[in-house]
Amino acid sequence: MTTAQDTVTIRPARPTDAPAIAAVHQDSRRATMPYLPPQRRTHDEVTRWIREIVLPESHTLVAVRGPEVLGYATVQGDLLDQLYLRPDVRRTGIGTRLLTEVRRHRPAGLTLHVFQLNTEARAFYAHHGFRVVATDDGSGNMENLPELTLRWTPSPGAAVPPGSP
User: Fold this and answer.
1) In the chain, what is the greatest distance between 2 CA atoms, to the nearest angstrom?
2) Average pLDDT in the 105-111 region?
3) Which of 25, 126, 151, 156 would give a disulfide with 133, using CB separation of 3.0 to 4.6 Å?
């Protein structure tokens, strides 16, 4: 039996993916973080940011089914800067697959920041072994929302097997 997840591939992002990545970014934030102020940036502005800043400065992976970009993750050093999915593919294992591939590229560990209000993301990362290492009042982010810094460090001697969550 083939599931929707079976047809998903994780690959490095290409500049031509920028419009689709921008759409995932905007749609996901709108659907999963209703506490954020309305998006002020246009789709074209977000696309330009993805193409000119995110892709050149980050290791970016996309989850695709055929030509469709379903989600993406960006990493700078050991910082998982972004992991977003289209709202209609959440809770299908695609986020876990993206995270697994990111971990494969950063086997020494990962750090990330998450809004304290983002309880679903916090639960996702806790499920995958991330632990709170710091808190802040939000004065350092554009949204001025309190954040948590989370860290995943593999157990000594443990490796992340290819394809495992």
Assistant:
1) 49
2) 93
3) 151
Which residues neighbour 34 within 8 Å (Cβ) at sequence distance 6 or greater?
A: none
164 domain-assigned: no
Phi and psi, residue 68, nearest 5°: -85, 130
Exposed (0-12), middle (13-18) or buried (19+): which is 96, by Cβ within 10 Å?
A: middle
In a domain, 159, yes or no: no
Number of domains in the chain: 1
Does 31 reside within a domain? yes
In the predicted structure, residue 65 carries a pLDDT above the cut 70: yes
Task: Phi first, then psi: give them for residue 83, nearest 5 degrees.
Answer: -150, 110
Q: Return the DSSP state at 50.
A: I
In a domain, 162, yes or no: no
The confidence band for 77, taking pLDDT boundaries of 50, 70 and 90, is very high
